[in-house]
């Protein structure tokens, strides 16, 4: 046991010396990578994902009130971001629809405004071309959602009006319609609140800042993992043979390597969390979870990452080959697993690959621990993968001896 501990502390001391020599280069590379990724991500997030669709509106003569209302609606920011209105005669609108110069045509019947104003549900007709693109399909979905809101509103209003007639309330039917319409739609179309409560983000359950904090931690760890190549030098094999004669087996050798890299990963993760907590106290708004369980839970992703890196090095024939393979694997994971840009920005094929890469599991695990999310399956899958990697590395180390 004493020999194992002496070997472990010797290797730990050598790791600290090797890592300190690369510290400056690692930090510079991380800073440049984060700035580049953050800039590209911000640019993507400001791009309008869907183009506006052009709608032709067909009005009857002397429909000035209807046109005024449509102008008001078209000027709303939520409408402007989706579509634009043009007023066309019916024949011209259908002709442009056939030529795909417009995406849809809305035909309003005669006296539409008067009918609506007096409580008559006069339907309007919307025509789409047979072959619609993605933007038009999205508009149709938004339209169907809006129609469902209106149907719910009407149902509520009619039910209350029926109660009014039953109990003979003093408010007139017209005033009841107007009051309930305004009151109910005010809540149904609380767009700001709806979007605040149901956020769809390219970065998942965390915001952009939290996402790139996690990315920064793993950039630091992956680049730093290149410093541990000395643990797998050819000269080490002679030492392992001597250790074996002393009763120290492959599991202890592989375990010492994993522990050394786990300590490195754990300290980096823990220091980031501590800095985040202190910054949150100063700013009176923390991005990190203040749970006392965080320091304990950080052991899990640290072990998972260390075990995987140990396996990659163990597969190589020598130190140089191990560092090159580690560099290639790290670069591939950073690109395909959302290490530089969120996976949502990539094509479906790359997203499918990225979802199963170890870096994706580590990032999801660290995000959930750092920011107080439920652990879910990601953390335990990452740990299980780490245990498998550790077991395989023991077999490989034994074979090399």
Secondary structure blueprint with pairings:
Layout: H1 2-45, E1 53-58, H2 64-74, H3 77-80, E2 83-87, H4 90-98, E3 104-107, H5 112-117, E4 125-128, H6 134-167, H7 173-188, H8 191-197, H9 208-224, H10 234-245, H11 250-283, H12 294-297, H13 299-315, H14 319-336, H15 348-355, H16 358-370, H17 376-400
Parallel strand pairs: 1-2, 1-3
Antiparallel strand pairs: 3-4
Helix pairs in contact: 1-9, 1-11, 6-7, 9-16, 11-13, 11-17, 13-14, 13-16, 13-17, 16-17
Question: What's a quick, concise take on this entry?
Answer:
It is found in: Cell membrane. Its main location: membrane. By secondary structure, the chain is mainly alpha-helical.
Task: Report the sheet with the most strands, covering strand number, pairing sense and barrel closure.
Answer: 4 strands, mixed
- As a whole number of angstroms, the C-alpha radius of gyration is 31 Å
Judged by helices, strands and strand pairing, the structural class is mainly alpha
Secondary structure tally, helices: 17
User: Count the strands?
Assistant: 4
Mean pLDDT: 76
Helix content: 55-70%
Number of domains: 2
Largest sheet, spatial ordering of strands: 2-1-3-4
Strand content: under 5%
The low-confidence parts are: none
Distance between the termini: 20 Å
Q: Shape, please? A: elongated
User: What pattern of helices and strands is seen along the backbone?
Assistant: HEHHEHEHEHHHHHHHHHHHH
């Amino acid at each position: 046991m004493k020999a194992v501990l002496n070997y472990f502390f010797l290797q730990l001391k050598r790791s600290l010396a090797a890592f300190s020599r690369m510290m400056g280069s690692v930090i510079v590379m991380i800073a440049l990578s984060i700035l580049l990724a953050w800039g590209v991500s911000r640019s993507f997030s400001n791009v309008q994902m869907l183009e506006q669709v052009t709608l032709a509106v067909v009005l009857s003569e002397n429909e000035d009130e209807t046109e005024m209302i449509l102008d008001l609606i078209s000027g709303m920011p939520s409408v402007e971001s989706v579509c634009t209105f043009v007023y066309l005669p019916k024949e011209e609108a259908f002709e442009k629809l056939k030529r795909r110069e417009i995406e849809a045509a809305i035909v309003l019947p005669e006296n539409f405004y008067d009918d609506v104003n007096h409580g008559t549900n006069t339907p309007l007709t919307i025509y789409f071309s047979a072959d619609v693109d993605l933007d038009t399909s999205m508009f149709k979905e938004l339209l169907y959602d809006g129609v469902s809101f209106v149907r719910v509103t009407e149902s509520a209003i009619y039910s209350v009006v029926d109660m009014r007639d039953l109990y003979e309330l003093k408010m007139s039917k017209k005033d009841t319609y107007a009051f309930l319409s305004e009151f109910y739609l005010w809540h149904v179309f609380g767009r700001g609140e709806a979007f605040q409560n149901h956020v769809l983000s390219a970065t998942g359950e965390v915001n952009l800042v939290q996402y790139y904090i996690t990315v920064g931690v793993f950039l630091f760890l992956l680049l730093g993992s290149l410093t541990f190549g000395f643990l797998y030098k050819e000269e080490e094999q002679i030492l392992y043979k001597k250790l074996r004669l002393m009763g120290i087996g492959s599991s202890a050798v592989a375990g010492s390597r994993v522990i050394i890299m786990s300590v490195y990963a754990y300290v980096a993760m823990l220091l980031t969390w501590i800095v985040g907590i202190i910054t949150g106290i100063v700013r009176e708004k923390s991005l990190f979870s203040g749970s006392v369980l965080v320091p304990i839970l950080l052991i899990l992703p640290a072990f998972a990452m260390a075990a995987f890196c140990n396996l990659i090095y163990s597969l190589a024939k020598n130190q140089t080959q191990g560092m090159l393979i580690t560099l290639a694997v790290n670069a591939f994971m950073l690109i395909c697993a959302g290490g530089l840009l969120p996976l949502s920005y990539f094509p479906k094929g790359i997203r499918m690959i990225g979802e199963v890469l170890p870096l994706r599991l580590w990032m999801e695990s660290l995000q959930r621990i750092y920011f107080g999310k439920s652990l879910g399956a990601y953390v335990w899958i990452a740990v299980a993968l780490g245990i498998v990697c550790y077991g395989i590395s023991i077999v490989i180390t034994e074979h090399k001896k």
